[in-house]
Design a protein that fits this description.
The protein is mainly alpha-helical. It is 74% helix and 3% strand. A two-stranded antiparallel ribbon has the order 1-2. A hairpin with a 3-residue loop joins strand 1 and strand 2. The longest helix has 24 residues.
Amino acid sequence: MARESLVDVVVAALLERVADGRTPPGELLPPEAELAEENEVSRLTLREALKVLQAQGVVEVERGRGTRVRPTAQWSSIRAVAHVHDRSGGADAPLHLLQLRRMVETGAAELAAAHRTDHDLAELERHLAAMRTAHDGGDVEAFVAADIAFHDVVLHASGNPFVAVLLGPLSAVLRARRHETSQHEPVQVHAIAEHAGVLDALRDGDAAASRAAMESHMDQTLRDLQRYVLR
């Protein structure tokens, strides 16, 4: 395994240690030798992983004491925060993610109404058709993939290069959440209808209607989340 990928594995393992409560924020990590043995890596690889976490604000080195996990509010990595909150199983995690999606995606849809191209519309139609096909075939994986692809087109069609970058680090968590909700057949039916509404508004080039359609989609997602996942 390449050094970079091995370091990434150790980084994820250390974040998992935080998420499952073995070393919560505010506590010191075990000594390097113990962590290296636990993860079956050299101390050099472990130190590289710790450097990554230190650069992300996840840990800080206290001279003479060890490496302490910092409060999550002080972390600078969206990916790290999402990983820990998602894996810790807190009921608020999916709601917080949906709140973020609502703030970003409603604005993106509004911008996309003025900036979308014919190619964007064709891609949205293709992904919506794929959602319908996956629904009819009972293919949850394909449904989720088409769902995410649809939203990616909207984000890029906004014309703002920072929009897609903002949600990019959350892609793995968002995919897991989509899969969790989309296993329920009524959720797929609702999603198809809501995506069709977004597409219609974007096709008309109506900014206010596009924002409202995405807002409606987020509202429906929240209702489905509460009914089928958080119940």
